[in-house]
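Q: I'm writing up a methods section and want to include an example of the input and output format. Could you take the sequence below and give the corresponding predicted structure tokens, formatted cleanly so I can copy it straight into the document?
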Amino acid sequence: MRQNIVAGNWKMNLTLQDGLALVSEITNMVADEVTGSQVQVVICPPFPFLYSVGKQLPEGSNFHLGAQNCSDKESGAYTGEVSGKMLQSVGAEYVILGHSERRQYFREDDFLLSQKLKAALAAGLKPIFCIGESLETREAEETFDFISKQLKDGLFHLSNEEFAQVVIAYEPIWAIGTGKTATSAQAQEVHAFIREQIARAYDAEAADNTTILYGGSANAQNARELFSQPDVDGGLIGGASLKSRDFTEIIKSF
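A: Here is the clean output for your methods example:
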């Protein structure tokens, strides 16, 4: 059975003190419900907060630590970069790769992301690999061709064993930070297509076991409907993950 996941991407927000207070609120609200449930909660703070936030997550619970990015290099003279091995050493289990903001603002392409995937997997991290189309692409009715190419170029070079460690996040770019959200039917349609592409590239078992998250202005009001779709296994949450009550309501949506 594939894993249900709610991941909170804090992006470049909060101070360490604010972040620790937020984690304390979230864990106090839902720690008992999450422990022993089928839902994993992944908290993805900025790099400087990782160790401190990780130490505050309840041991033995379904709370996990994730990073927002990592280098494609293992080590060396790469000032300002952070390797997968470094992330693993401070307790990170997951890492977000290919977020639309990284692709857009930092010009990360599918080749670079394929190298980052390899590096993250070699360090023992579980990648949350983001894909998704722009409004222009959707309006041109090229969504499926675009996503198929992102999957092929970014992910499908992995072996079966490597691919089994990957979580996919579908994030329609037109719905990130805009307040717009794909309808549950739109999300389900694309998630089902992604699963179909996985089955073709690997096999039906791999497709059925892959967790596919929705990311794109998911919030406390629409999470339950989105998560009720058969191919939507959770969410990669942005702005709502910075509000303890909203984030815990999303977690409870399962």
